[in-house]
Design a protein that fits this description.
It is a single chain. It is globular, with a radius of gyration of 25 Å. By secondary structure, the chain is an alpha+beta fold. 19% of the residues lie in helices and 35% in strands. Among the domains are: 4-51 and 382-461 and 480-542 and 573-650, Rossmann fold (3-Layer(aba) Sandwich); 199-327, Neuraminidase, CATH 2.120.10.
Length: 654
């Protein structure tokens, strides 16, 4: 036997009599569970060890640009810590029960602190707070009940911007408020907007104008120039065909914009827009990949941007005057999670991870090119040499491009030193406008190393990172074409000598949860079991019940259930309408406070499976939203997944 955990699981499964009736619904901590047997203590202990592989993500520089605020989890959820220099201790600053989202240091050096946002129980009704480092206290800046999203400080740090949905829950309003506030009266909206996709894309150095972006879908956004004094909103750079924008920065003199868009291109590329003439100059067109991050130095002299090249990140620096860019040569192969220039523009803080190393904070000296690691996160006592590097493959699917089969990229994680054919778990990302990257995953390493399972992670059509044509291949009535890509993956697995096509399971969260359910309804006989985390079971009820500010944004991707033709298509493809096809066991997890995929999506799926006699294990988290944010909840859920896969995927001869 290759490891002690797998041996213990096999003995538990073989030695214990099978229960004739599923365990009744009961509470375990903040979880309500149903149908799940007691989890072996040894299993939970091993899961806990993998979950104690930590990471550190850059939040912001301190007000002096010398130390870093980073996000790290040492207890239940990530909190903000301070790191004074390379290798220095991470000093914990915040100690809340909920994870922190946005963190931004106030540019006004008279204010010793940072802004942060936090929700309650995963409800995503974020409130903004200012944490005063001098007193160690927080003060609430928003109404305490609606959803608010921070949109940046002005250059001086005397004002901040945010959008909120307090007017009607569906539409966003723009607020620009003094900091500190000059009055105790609730702030009035500076601009009332229509829709839930608005954000401040850029704020000029003089504080007088902004660029607002109206996000309509992954394939379409609109830009507007906003004069703060007159409150005039003017369409900016209108185009005949829809354009998607992913980054905007004002030039130093505010006469132009550096922006990232896919106008006239398959990929998101960096351009310069002259505001007076409307002339658009391409800057990064020779790079045939998406530009993903964009950061301008405070003096406006340079920009840093990153690209996503087949899932791996590359970093570039552009001279704002000459418009010439150069690659940064010594950044290790991996995924850059975000970056931030300090005030003098000489040092870049960045988050870097790889498949075999969890995220940590690094600082790059832009002049000398030296990259210094600032944090070295704990690995739970595990041997990092055992962490698995994936193989990037491309497999053929059902349709063709230029007379040849379309190829779907996928990362394959294989157990080391495996003998014979190993079982396979398909792991499908959410979004659908998302992309699986070769980041570190404690769960994947747990599955590969402890269960001996290969994990296949495809980026099916509709994924970002491979061009806008690929992104749009699953829209509206073509939704199940992405499911056919999973069918093609099953075909490919059957051709691989080291993979066992008779023992395959599927796992996914959010839209990936829908893909897991859809895989089970379409390929049930080829699957051993499926795992669905907060997935869409019925597109019509999902669009009806998702949070109002999201509904139209999701209709742009999935289709409009109010259209009779689209409603008919939803009835044909929604897993709830094909639930009788699922005879293999299912595990379902759902956060009770989920504002995106509401609780009803999982409840109706579980009820239907139970009614028809299909084995279903169910986990309901009372203090979670669209995630598994709390470590205790993750420990139990991952432990249940491990036992579920042992019972249904690994066992031969089912």
């Amino acid at each position: 036997m290759k490891n002690l955990l797998l041996a213990a699981l096999l003995l538990t499964a073989a030695g214990a009599p099978r229960a004739q009736t599923a365990p009744a619904r009961r509470d375990v901590g903040n979880l309500t569970i149903e149908g799940i047997p007691a989890l072996p203590p040894d299993l939970l202990a091993r899961v806990d060890q993998y979950q104690n592989v930590r990471g550190a993500s850059v939040a912001d520089w301190d007000r002096d640009g010398k130390g870093l605020f980073v996000s790290t989890r040492f207890a239940e959820v990530p909190q903000i810590h301070y790191v004074a220099g390379p290798g220095a201790d991470r000093r914990q600053i915040t100690f809340f029960k909920e994870p922190l989202a946005t963190v931004a240091t106030c540019p006004d050096k008279r204010q010793n602190g940072f802004l942060y946002s936090r929700d309650q129980g995963g409800d995503e009704n974020y409130q903004l707070y200012f944490f005063d480092l001098g007193t160690g206290s927080s003060r609430l800046l928003t109404d305490g009940k609606s959803r608010h999203v921070f949109q940046g400080w002005n250059r001086a740090g005397t004002q901040l911007a945010y959008v909120g949905n307090q007017r009607n829950g569906a539409d966003l309003d723009l607020f620009v408020v003094d900091f500190p506030a000059k009055t105790a009266a609730p702030p009035a909206a500076l601009l009332e907007l229509k829709g839930g996709g608005w954000r401040v894309a850029a704020w000029a150095d003089d504080g007088r104008q902004m660029v607002l972006q109206n996000y309509k879908s992954a394939a379409e956004s609109e830009l507007f120039r906003f004069d703060l004094a007159s409150r005039q909103l003017t369409p900016l750079h209108q185009t005949a065909a829809p354009v998607a924008y992913s980054g905007v920065e004002f030039s130093r003199d505010a006469k132009g914009l550096f922006l990232v868009s896919d106008e006239g291109s398959e990929f998101q590329t960096l351009r310069y827009l002259d505001l007076a003439s409307g002339r658009l100059t391409p800057l990064s067109a020779p790079i045939p990949w998406d530009v993903e991050g964009l950061e301008r130095s405070r003096d406006g002299g340079q920009l840093v941007f990153s690209t996503n090249e087949g899932g791996y990140s590359k970093l570039y620096v552009l001279d704002a005057n000459t418009r010439a860019y150069r690659p940064v040569a010594n950044v290790p192969k991996g995924v850059i999670g975000g970056f931030k220039l300090n005030d003098d523009g000489r040092r870049l803080a960045l988050t870097l991870a790889s498949a075999t190393s969890s995220a940590d904070a690094y600082v790059l000296d832009l002049a000398g090119g030296q990259l210094t690691r600032w944090t070295t996160s704990e690995v739970g006592g595990l041997n990092p040499a055992a962490f698995v590097e994936p193989e990037l493959v491309q497999y053929p699917t059902f349709d063709q491009v230029s007379g040849r089969p379309r190829l779907i990229p996928a990362f394959i994680y294989r157990p080391k030193n495996a003998r014979g054919k190993v079982p396979v778990l398909l792991s499908i990302h959410g979004g659908p406008e998302g992309q699986s990257l070769p980041n570190f995953s404690a769960l994947i390493n747990l599955l590969v190393n402890e269960l001996g399972v290969a994990v296949a992670v495809p980026n099916v059509r509709g994924s970002t990172g491979y061009g806008k044509t690929y992104l749009g291949l699953d829209n509206g009535p073509r939704r199940e074409d992405s499911v056919k890509d999973i069918g093609a993956l099953l075909d490919w697995i059957a051709t691989q000598p080291g993979l066992d096509a008779t023992r395959v399971a599927v796992f996914g969260g959010s839209y990936g949860g829908y893909m897991s359910l859809a895989t089970m309804t379409n390929y049930n006989e080829r699957m051993r079991c499926g795992i669905d985390l907060f997935g869409i079971s019925n597109f019509a009820t999902f669009l009806k019940n998702t949070s109002p500010y999201r509904a139209d944004l999701r209709r742009a991707e999935y289709g409009d259930e109010r259209d009779p033709a689209m409603l008919k298509a939803f009835e044909a493809i929604s897993p709830i309408h094909k639930i009788k096809n699922i005879t293999r066991p299912m595990l379902v997890y759902q956060g009770q406070n989920d504002p995106r995929v509401p609780l009803s999506e999982s409840e109706q799926m579980v009820a239907g499976l139970k009614k028809q006699g299909t084995t279903v294990w169910y986990i309901l988290a009372k203090d979670e939203g669209h995630s598994l944010a709390k470590k205790a909840n993750r420990d139990y859920t991952y432990g249940a997944m491990m036992l579920f896969l042992q019972e249904n995927l690994l066992r031969p001869g089912i």
